[in-house]
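Suppose a classmate hands you a notebook page containing two proteins, each written out with its sequence and a corresponding row of structure tokens. How would you begin to make sense of it? This section walks through that situation. The first entry is reproduced here exactly as it would appear on such a page.
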Amino acid sequence: MSKLTIKSGKGELSLKKSKSLVGLKTTPEKPAAKEDYVEAEVHTNLGGFQVVSLKKEGDDIDSKLDEVRRRDEVEVGTHVYYAEGSNKPLVATGDIYITFEEGVSEGEQRIVLEEYHLEVVERRDKTRLIARVTPQSPNPIKVAHMLQQVSLVKLAEPDLDTILDEYEFREPSDDLITQQWHLRNTGSIPGANYNIRQGADAKVADAWRRLGGLGSERVVIAVIDNGFDINHPDLRTKVFRPFDLWNQSPNLAMGDPRFTHGTPCASVALAVSNGRGIVGAAPNAMFMPISGTSFSNRATEQMFDYCIENGADIISCSWGTTDPNFALSSIKSEAIARAASKGRNGKGCVILFATGNDDFDFVNFYAAHPDVIAVGASTSQDSYASYSNRGREVSVVAPSNGDWPILAARASWDEGISWETGVYRFYRDGRDRGPLYKHFGGTSSSTPLVAGVCALMLSANPNLTAREVREILQSTADKIGAPSEYSGGHSAKYGYGRVNADRAVAEALRRMEKQPEPAEVEETVTSGQGLFRFSVKRQPSVGWGVQTGVYKEYGNVLIQAEKLQSQFNQPIVVNINELNGETVYKVILGAFENLAEAKQLHEKVKAAGISSFPADLSKLG
């Protein structure tokens, strides 16, 4: 049997036997002539075994392992397995954790153990014990698989060992990252004969190192713009709940050469780290593209309400207007304020707008909104970008062009800049960096850069409110330019300074550490509070669901059921049981025929920040 399915942890593992690797235990007293049969050593100690590849010389792995087992120096030889979808070797240590059904006597347990020639290593209680295979036993994984078919056995889980990940942070190795001076400015651009100012960057690479990673996959950045190439290799793997306002559909319009702006904007915030091309400031963040900018009241309400309803944490907008004829109406202001207060379950969406590129002494009217982080631009020399609009509303500036441009993703239909020669060019110095990228800039680039920094802050501390995020960004920014340009810590050009991702993340982490551990407090509904409409029918004890909680108060069950049903549009199953003499209610979301469907829902529930696990309904009936 080359493929087996066994229970492991809270789920199942589908295991496939390695065709080349085995695990060996050898006798210390007898020197092993391993060169006779070992091709290479893969791991010195995995589950007490040395994992090696064998010289098969045409034999299959089963025949060769049987041959090696007969050698004097080999005490034990075992197969090595791989879990489906994993490239990490798994070795069974020989121990099996067994839980018998309630009421199974020790005599009956002994019969089961003797059937598979198992010896008891440790008894935990009347129904739970640890057994170990003997030379007469089958492979421990096979034993566990067979035990799981025995009616007296509730659970049989083989003890497995595998290689664990070491969480030493490794910086992205994407091949164009050295061109991305805005993440870390070393004073030069490889391949370009141009001097920039060392340290004139957003300190993003330092923030990654402080975090020990590239941010959380649970943070969602909505980019509202036009011209998203969602097939771009730096964006296509992370698209989440896209929406096109112009066609009122999740299918984004693509291919119009008039609209290319959204692609580079999104990439500056969140381009994935995949070993190729560029990376964004928050490479692990999810990408919610909302296509179709509009001045319309109705469209403005829809775009921001969509962000609230679909789980956007951060909203990045590199557009707006400085035309006095089109100042924000109260309806638009209220739509932005609503997202800033009601988004993220009341913590508020973090909303960023570009100040604009007009060299005006006032900012884009959207950026002037009191709930918005207004982002201007600085240069690779740590100076003011002359095009960046100024004003008392400027929150921070972030590196962009004005001296040397930013490298960003390019939509596949982007026609670039037509020069007098008729040649389309995408790079300031004319040196080709491939068809997927281009030089970019303006406050259009600095804004999503700060959006990515905000995603790193929320990765460090998801409890921050939108107001706290803006406060931290401003208080940790680096003062650049002449000190005389600041009054009360603020400059009309620079806001509170050039964004410093490392210091912002450090402050987010500090505030996380200061927060007390949240107490497990159940919502309690007393008599007369709340009005609920529901229908009840018996649920067959078959299939799978996703368990989200256990409650003592039935009022809490009603509250949670209402929330879950509205959020996930799935039926609610309640299991009534007893725990230590008290009635408890287990709340299960969904009822599916197979585990795979339950796991899909589990991922959605987990992504929403709700503790949960797939539950076998047959064991709850």
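The notebook's second entry, a different protein, reads as follows.
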Amino acid sequence: MSDIIQLLPDSVANQIAAGEVVQRPASAVKELLENAIDAGADKIQLIVKDAGKALIQVIDNGCGMTITDARMCFERHATSKVRKAEDLFAIRTMGFRGEAMASIAAIAQVEMKTKRHEDEVGTLIQIEGASFIKQEPVGTADGTSISIKNLFYNTPARRNFLKSNPAEMRHIIDEFQRVALAKPHIAFSLHHDGVEVYRLPASAMKQRIVHLFGNNYNERLIPVEEETTIINLKGFIGKPEFAKKTRGEQFFFVNDRFIKDAYLNHAVNKAYQELLPDDNFPLYVLFIDIDPAKIDVNVHPTKTEIKYLDEKSIYAIIHSAVKRSLGRFNISPTIDFDQETGFSNMISHKAPEDIVPPSIAFNPDFNPFTSTKSPARESAAPRSQNQHLAPSKNWGSLYEITNHQLPEQATIDLGGTQKDDEFEPVQKQFMQLHHRYIVSQIKSGMMVIDQQAAHERILYERFLLHLEDRKGASQQSLFPQTVTLSPNDYELAKSLLEDIKSLGFEVREFGKNTLVIEGIPVDLGSTNVNETQLFEHLIEGFKNSQQELKLDKRDSLARSMARNSAIKAGTALGQQEMNTLIEELFACKTPNFSISGKPVIQTITLTEIAQKFDK
């Protein structure tokens, strides 16, 4: 039997390595940006076309390379950062594995121009599919410019797995944001298809966060700083009132390297435990500085996971530092009457002795169960001789008498037996309970409906239908509103624009990261809606549905729209509004369950009610 084990050709080995290192255009962006940082650049430009599929170009003003280094950097396991195994535990640079450039060159057409500051001419190298095409002297600026064209051109199966351009561009923006946050002292810019997405000057950390995510983030940030013998922690966290339904804006950096760590993430979330609902996630950008000998960064191909020698202590430090900052800078409301203008009408300038407490007039003999219209009812229930005729004068403090009374025709008839548990009300008369539930008599007892869950179900099925037939009606806004999104959300909104219009929105692009809302769905016309806020919540809700439930695009959009447009618990409804809501609910395909899978309708039978009185 002949030997069957053979060494792989370099071209095949490089393509296998590329499968680990370069999964999509964003992976190549990450590697090139990190190499530019390691080269000592203080100005880095990223240019992409066709979401990185046609071109990824990174231009830096770093140290540049010699002719030999320029050729050597495309060899496998070639790196300037590691000389011996011990160096792996003293790494403070970004890229060090030595496979990035070789992997990229194996699956793309690469052109590199590089020149050191002390050299008169630079070097041009062209590679296609790991094969050198050209190497020659060239006049070029100091630093390095690398262009990656036609990514995955020789591995079409990998190219077929790429997502749409907006989806791939969002991944590129994610990588760009992570690198830019880690190095605020470096100026960055990003251009996509000739349009400037970011221009970030060198700045302090807070300004870098604001430049990346928007000017409104300036008021959302709380500083965090803690120095210990184990780690030094610094950065910013977000105020609880600005938390979102998705985890998007959460960043941990260890020695300026972006990492993903569910354990440390839990430490931050636990500090917010009593301040946020379970489905809300705070913003944080936190930097951990630690001795490289106490961590291992070489545990994952993309270097986004790290092992620590003393992770429990790090957890405790992060949790206590975040909790302390929340208490120090944010949470307790300020009682400063010079600033809190909402209290101005409550302040009296009279002397304390001039203030007279208000008097309260009430009838101590009032009984809500008696009626002047029907004196016969009073005699129908005679009092026992031991019962006091006058109630206690303090009984009124136990009750809150409201103006909402149950109409006589809505009272439940307790006589007779019922055969079934039909939901159809005996009479179309409903009562609202605590502005949250709708109550009605049915043949077997009573029916209780969650008004918000019911309206969400109605709108969800309606919006889903609009997305399918593309006939969502729009109502023109009297004053069109502009909404400015983060670059990532803007790319997402552009990819959803046709479906958003199907819901009934009239939206068009308007300059850099800005949309104009000229109309909203007719279904929302009767409500006082803030178009800008609704649109932002629509995008945020869509991301949440996609992230948590992995739903298709249209289903996620319909769910997000329904949740943000439905009437909320606490909304008072008139009799006609309740009638309409119930009729539309029972016309739904799935009226019994909310869009989150919880019951919309609960019934209480006469037997269950009777049992309450038999105890």
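A careful reader of the second entry would note: Residues 332-352, 372-421 have pLDDT under 50 and may be disordered.
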